[in-house]
Write a structure and sequence with these properties.
Layout (H helix, E strand, L loop, with lengths): L3 H8 L9 H4 L9 E4 L2 E6 L2 E4 L8 H18 L11 H10 L3 H31 L9 H16 L13 H12 L2 H30 L8 H17 L7 H16 L11 H27 L4 H27 L2
Antiparallel strand pairs: 1-2, 2-3
Length: about 325
């Protein structure tokens, strides 16, 4: 049973700062609409007002810098050991093709994806250097095509790569460099807002299920405000670029809110049975798992639908356990 205060907080999940109340009621707002809200320019996508940034000029240099940034971001979020230099692409391919044991083949496929990714970045770097010397590079250039082939093949093998947490792989991270290579820079930035909106929605879904599961229960009284403070900080972190001067406060708020949520102390007064204590331990573990999942998708700035779905299912199973436990206590003489 969710308390009235928890219900009120859930109803306001979208209200600030990404989806003001007046915006939520207006169903006619088109994606891409730009407005200044609270002295901050925001762009509207799929129900959220997201902090907007001016894209760089569409040039080979801008594309190179964008792909390099996406490459660093990718390797920051995936499993260790796959950041193979592009010059070792042939070795990586041979190692993958000669492997027969399935688990090892997956890992070597992930390493091949990393090598392909880095080879594409290497090619793009040299193309930019040639362009700066006054040599025209068009889309039909053989090296441009090779760069595209490498990124496309990396996307295929990227499906074998796990998130650094061991959770599902994030296909979106592998597809972004190819998209950045294939379309104008401004169009790429527009596509990122769509992904950020999807990520914000998943953060809200996780917040709602945690509050629905634990809010209003005796053992976890007071958890709602910590959950919503953390997920609101996560949404602000998700929309804020690392180059933004506000990142120092934004990251500090996000980190501290996560620490406070993980340090939540349940109310153990009257919780003396072994079942009570087990419910508390399992509940705390579930809360930390939710905190970690929100952290993963916030930093990656893309959804993790499989992990989110599985987490929601675990919360639903836990909620059913609490309900059965309460019903059993009510039947005691």
């Amino acid at each position: 049973m969710i308390s009235c205060s928890a219900q009120c907080m859930i109803s306001c999940l979208h209200c600030q700062p990404h989806e003001p109340k007046w915006a939520a009621m207006n169903t006619l707002i088109a994606n891409g609409t730009v407005r200044v809200i609270g002295n901050i320019e925001r762009v509207y996508y799929d129900g959220y007002w997201i902090k907007a940034y001016d894209p760089p000029a569409d040039s080979l240099r801008a594309k190179k810098q964008l792909i390099e940034a996406l490459t660093r971001r990718l390797f920051n979020h995936v499993e260790h050991g796959i950041n193979i230099p592009g010059r070792r692409l042939n070795e990586a391919r041979q190692a993958f093709e000669s492997e027969t044991e399935p688990a090892r083949k997956r890992v070597k496929g992930a390493m091949l994806a990393g090598a392909l990714f880095n080879r594409a970045t290497d090619i793009f770097t040299k193309l930019m250097e040639l362009q700066e010397l006054g040599i025209e590079i068009d889309e039909e250039n053989a090296l441009m095509r090779e760069c595209g082939f490498c990124l496309q093949e990396a996307l295929t093998f990227g499906k074998m790569v796990l998130h650094r947490s061991g959770e599902e792989g994030i296909d979106e991270l592998w597809g972004e460099p190819f998209r950045a290579f294939s379309i104008p820079v401004e169009a790429f930035y527009d596509s990122r807002y769509i992904k950020i909106a999807q990520t914000l929605r998943d953060i809200d879904r996780i917040a709602q299920v945690i509050v629905s599961t634990f809010g209003g229960t005796r053992l976890f009284e007071g958890i709602e405000s910590l959950v919503l403070r953390f997920t609101e900080a996560a949404k602000i972190k998700c929309e804020t670029l690392r180059t933004d001067p506000a990142i120092f406060d934004v990251w500090a708020d996000f980190a501290v809110a996560g620490e406070e949520l993980a340090a939540f102390a349940p109310r153990l007064v009257g919780a003396t049975s072994a079942e009570d204590l087990q419910l508390v331990a399992d509940g705390l573990q579930l809360i930390v798992q939710g905190r970690d999942l929100v952290g993963h998708i916030t930093r990656a700035r893309v959804p993790m639908p499989k992990s989110t779905h599985e987490y929601i299912e675990r919360c639903e199973h836990y909620s059913a356990r609490i309900h059965r436990h309460v019903q059993g206590c009510m039947k005691l003489p």
